[in-house]
């Protein structure tokens, strides 16, 4: 009679347990997705800050080094005519050897929020020296650069105002 009350245990999960586990995993994945998107945007913001810092430093160095020699600077303001000038090089006004070139950038960094199909130098909104700060417009030289993105940053500011 002892064998009559013996239970048989099966190994594995039943369908309800599997559905409950799948539902929990789905809720966790849905909670993590916005965090992943926020981390991606934060990484792009970091890249944008770094690119702006690099370009603006190169513009300032160009102005300090070449800007005094109007024949080299060209525009009269002392700033380069384009971002490509920073990459292609300009004659060094400090040396007697006029064949010596100064390079201020290896490559033009790209705006991480711009269309990836555009060349890097076209991903930036350029501001000329004669342009007012409230209405940055391109002109005969490059005094400053801004992002072309109309999006809002994580801190609530506009990328175009960075």
From TrEMBL:
Xref: Gene3D superfamilies: Glycoprotein, Type 4 Pilin
One of the Pfam families matching this protein, by short name: N_methyl
Keywords associated with the record: Methylation
GO cellular component terms attached to this protein's record: type II protein secretion system complex
InterPro entries found in the cross-reference section: Bac_GSPG_pilin (IPR000983), N_methyl_site (IPR012902), Pilin-like (IPR045584)
Record has Membrane as a keyword: no
GO biological process: protein secretion by the type II secretion system
SUPFAM superfamilies per the UniProt record, alphabetical: Pili subunits
Name this polypeptide is given: General secretion pathway protein GspG
The organism of origin for this protein: Rhodoferax lacus
């Amino acid at each position: 009679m002892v064998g009559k009350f013996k239970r048989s245990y099966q190994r594995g999960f039943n369908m309800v347990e599997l559905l409950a586990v799948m539902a929990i995993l789905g809720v966790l994945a849905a909670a993590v997705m916005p965090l992943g998107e926020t981390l991606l945007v934060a990484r792009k913001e970091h890249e944008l800050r770094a690119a702006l810092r690099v370009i603006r430093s190169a513009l300032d160095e160009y102005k300090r080094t070449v800007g005094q020699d109007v024949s080299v600077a060209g525009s009269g303001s002392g700033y380069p005519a384009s971002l490509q000038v920073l990459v292609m090089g300009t004659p060094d006004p400090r040396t007697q050897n006029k064949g010596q070139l100064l390079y201020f950038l290896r490559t033009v960094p790209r705006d991480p929020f711009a269309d990836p199909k555009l060349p890097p130098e076209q991903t930036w909104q350029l501001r000329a020296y004669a342009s007012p700060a409230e209405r940055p417009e391109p002109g005969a030289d490059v005094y400053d650069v801004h992002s072309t993105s109309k999006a809002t940053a994580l801190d609530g500011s506009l990328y175009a105002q960075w």
